[in-house]
Amino acid sequence: MGTEIERKFLVKDDGWRGEITASRHLRQAYLAQTPALTLRVRIVDEEQATMNLKSSQSGIARQEFEYAIPLEDARALMALALGRPVVKRRHIVAAGALAWEIDVFEGDHAGLILAEIELPHAEADFPRPAWLGDEVTDDPRYYNAALAGLSGAAGT
Amino acid sequence: MGTEIERKFLVKDDGWRGEITASRHLRQAYLAQTPALTLRVRIVDEEQATMNLKSSQSGIARQEFEYAIPLEDARALMALALGRPVVKRRHIVAAGALAWEIDVFEGDHAGLILAEIELPHAEADFPRPAWLGDEVTDDPRYYNAALAGLSGAAGT
Q1: Which residues are bridge partners to A20 per DSSP?
Q2: What pTM, to 2 d.p., does this model score?
Q3: What ipTM was assigned to the predicted interfaces of this complex?
Q4: Could you tell me if B55 lies within 8 Å of chain A, comparing CB atoms?
């Protein structure tokens, strides 16, 4: 269990591509969404899988629970999902002691690129590289749940 | 992941109490319910915890996925539940090669006792002890989700 503070941005250009330190492919889907939480299943590089629960409390901070599950379970659970799976390649770019996660979407959202940073506390300072675009942390159109085609989306 | 076939009955009397081979205390709650699945968290003897996903497909057989999770996570997740927690003591009574699970409910449902048997296939034969009452497998009033105060309950 952890409490996460995340901020999310558009990107202006491909300046970040020279700075990639790691990449992985993600396929994820929402299994459930209630007033209190969202439940997501994620397959990484078609090799590993996790189940992820996030509380829906308002504000930037929320509780998160993540558990490794067998890959075959995750594939079966994908068939029980709400909305549609979100597929993307996630690139890691260093940001001082922190890191940018830059998601390049595939499938229905091909062309969309989002940069996200997880902060140790809500007022934490972080680098603003030249490629960083407008902040969309609180823009419901860019919530993961919205990208999965769910309404009343609570998860970022 | 497994496919379970369960039948559920009322009990006529306390004849089963002399046959108990094991008992444990269960506190469980629904975290989510969708057209496709239910998600439940369970705390056993206030010592161990699991997260359980069941598919909602119609009929007696359904998919089930269960994962151990940290006790402190389960306690935090209980606060995010739908409906109200169901609290009961579960007693195991041998039934030949099979076993009865006899649930003695506490709290809101004090007085209710249900006997459940998991079968290897839908037509499997099983003992019918003298204490066994009416079958309620398909009675929505006795679905676990209904006992938790959820409507449109799909989980038995």
Answers
A1: A93
A2: 0.78
A3: 0.74
A4: yes
